Every structure is written in C-alpha cells, then in structure tokens.
Amino acid sequence: MTSNHPFWLTVPVKYADQDTKINSILIDNSKRCWVDHQKSIIMSYRKSLGLPTLEKLLTVYERQWTKLVDLNIITKYLRSCVK
C-alpha cells in the first residue's frame, strides 16, 4: 500500500504467448523488481505488522524464483500473513 491505497507488485516474465500455461512461464530474474518489492513491503507494513510477521513476508525474497506458478502459490501464504 502507498498512502493507504493498494498497489500491485509486478513480476517481469520471459516472453510467453498468451496461450502459455502459467506452469510454463519463466520469471525474468535479470530485472531489479525484487529489491523494489522488499522496499515497498517494508515501507507499507513496518508499522502495522509486528517484526516477526514482516520478517516472515520477506523470507519469500530469499529464494530466486524460476517459474511464475511457484511464486503464485506462495502469494496465498503472503496474504495469510497480513490478514
């Protein structure tokens, strides 16, 4: 959230046709989005979440994701952390 408004954390992917299934789409890890994601999460939640919860959210960024489907699955976990 920025200024109390939701925002998207986008993930760059390697080229794939629109018909490509999500389990075949690869993440483009050459981009800088992961650092930006971490900064956005810290800025948005540092006061409202306790430190253990914030640290749990940030553990997602310790791994280099390869497939979009794997990252998509972990977003369910992320949502449960901030409810």
Could you explain how this protein is built, in words?
It is elongated and about 40 Å long. It is 43% helix and 0% strand. It has helices at residues 33-45, 51-58, 68-82. It has 3 helices and no strands. The protein is mostly helical and 83 residues long. 4% of the residues are buried. The mean pLDDT is 84.
Key traits:
mainly alpha; WbqC; 3 helices; single chain; 43% helix; 83 residues
Quick structural summary:
43% of the residues lie in helices and 0% in strands. By secondary structure, it is mainly α. The protein starts with 32 loop residues before the first helix and ends with a helix.
Mean pLDDT: 84
Number of helices, where a helix is a run of at least 4 consecutive DSSP H or I residues: 3
Tell me the series of helices and strands, N- to C-terminal: HHH
Biggest sheet descriptor: none
Q: Helix coverage percent of residues?
A: 40-55%
Q: Which structural class matches the secondary elements?
A: mainly alpha
Count of beta strands: 0
Count structural domains.
Answer: 1
Alpha carbon gyration radius: 14 Å
The proportion of residues in beta strands is under 5%
* Overall form: elongated
Distance between the amino and carboxyl termini: 14 Å
Ranges where pLDDT stays below 50 over 5 or more residues in a row are: none
Record the SSE blueprint.
Blueprint: H1 33-45, H2 51-58, H3 68-82
Pfam family, one: WbqC
